[in-house]
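Quick start: read one record
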Amino acid sequence: MRAVLTGDVEIYEQSGMDRFRQMQLFIAVMETGSFTRAAEALSIPRSTVSTSIQALEDRLQCQLLHRTTRKIVPTSDGIAFLQAARDIVDAVTGAEQMFTGDQVQISGRLRVGMPSRIARKIVIPALPAFLARHPELSVEFSASDQLTDLVAGGMDCVLRVGVPNTPELIARKLQDIPFVTCASPAYLGRYGRPADLRDLSSHVLVNYTPQFPATESVLTFCDNGKPRDIPMQGSVTVDGAEAYLAAALAGLGLIQVPLFDVRDLLETGALIEILPDFAPPPEPLSFLYARRRNLSARVRVFQKWLEGVLREGGV
């Protein structure tokens, strides 16, 4: 391919539209895992996809894919180009979205990381309506209580509860999440119901850590309007929300959890809130994405939808 300089502008003989289309087809091949599935998804001949990817590799003068009879595997250059291509395609789509609003139908794949309790209680129950509005979109969830590395994990965005400590990411606060301290009736029958923070010296907690080794065992309360950490003893440490809740229901100790996660259990009496006058400070729920990326139309629409879900859900 030959480049012609006109003033300060470099004009390629191959049209920008062709180059943009090649990026789109390459992304489709990577997301579907084959030329055939990419062609079917885009309703075009397989030969068109194959020829386009070959032309892309010729233009870049590098191999992007290892092709075998069973699967397609990206090369290191292919992995690097995939992210760059996604950034460009997302930027163009996002620019259109700024002017056309909801008229642009988002499509492709959206990869989201979030805590399991957020996925289970808030996002997934509301997801059918979102996908019905955007039938060409597919969503991949990493619903884990482990801290998700957005960039290394290939995520488009992540949700995190708590103050973000990730300078390489842009964080948008969605809202504050109220927390409660609670225990099972069996636990309170054995240890008594604390009336004051001083009473906690004779109590135990279930320790929660996002990853091992665990940090110091503490519960945090609001005391005279200020956060106060109370070190406590506990014989059980978990790294998952489900296990944390199960341990409390089994009477193994006090826990502090988002109110939305235990509202039904508090209503039935399976758990009992304690020390409501010293309720834990709320934690921010933040929406994060990579600083170096343009906010794609998919991510922008998902964020806007999520804000509505949180408002309507009374989280």
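Residues 25 and 148 are 28 Å apart (CA to CA).
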